[in-house]
Amino acid sequence: MAKGPRPGHGPLTGVRVVELAGIGPGPFAAMLLADLGADVVRVDRPGGAGLGIDPASDLTNRNKRSVLLDLKSDEGPARVLDLVERADILIEGYRPGVAERLGVGPEACLARNPKLVYGRMTGWGQDGPLAERAGHDIAYLALTGTLSMIGKPDEPPVVPANLLGDYAGGSLYLVIGVLAALQHARAHGEGQVVDAAIVDGAAHLATMIHGMLAAGSWQDRRGTNLLDGGCPFYGTYATSDGGHMAVGPLEEKFYTEFACLLGIADAFPDRWDLARWDELRAAVTERFSTRTRAEWTEVFDGTDACVAPVLSLTEAPHHPHLAARSTFVEHSGLTQPAPAPRFSATPVSVRGGPALPGADTAAVAADWDVPGLRPDPHD
Question: What's the pTM?
Fold first, then answer.
């Protein structure tokens, strides 16, 4: 029997979650719930999810347990409904209508468990002209206007990995939704369906920008505004060794310190003279190009100039501040971001490595009292 994550850690201890295996934002949302202490049982399909990622390295499956079920088999849907009967939350990321055709849609699940929170994660949402269309993070960002804001004005928009759509606009909104619905279910005994669409979340993330646009303080052109790289004192600059420094002293007292340490304080007394922004950017660029990233890091160390070195993924865990906070941890031989946020009374942690498909079937059958899950001893 596989040894799954230990129970009793985090504010969601006692919450049971069924995750129907998928890719992208659904697994990440379920990981976040697991990080917060929920008992997440991932229903894996025979053959895997199709992305070719080694399950032993798939960190989005940490702190979970896995059972192996074929939803297209005669008994598969019935076993999922057995789990649903004992669960608080279900998460699925199929195209609209697929869960229904498999026999594990909202109607079937809520009939079995009226208090269930049924979380649906898609890109386009459960309805609308594009609901049935395939898509990925980049397309969802494109239609919401969010992608248009990222990059230089004379170049194509820059792809922000899949962090902004899948995870910020998708996973985090799904988690907010299911936890809010769980609160309602516990208060009123009424479950419901949560429709989390990446297009909705990605659009919602830009609420402040839309307000600035309405007020006339934001241009609908990328690379021309205060927070999109258009401002010479909010952006990144190359150093002499090919590294980069991130610069962001927006407030006057921080900018004053920045300009003094960079050595341009006397050249540009009025940083809000937009007509001289190109000139100011050129001066900042030239100054950063005279020293290495390490040298500039030392110059700005311990100051309020709001300047930081741009670290790589492998460098970040070794930064003194992140190391002191244990922002990254090592578990099962894998360096990974620690669970976030932090709690004073119910601390969270990485309790178990990535759940291997089907490895916890017997344990879940016993813990959740689902006899039908138990492996056949004759197999």
Answer: 0.94
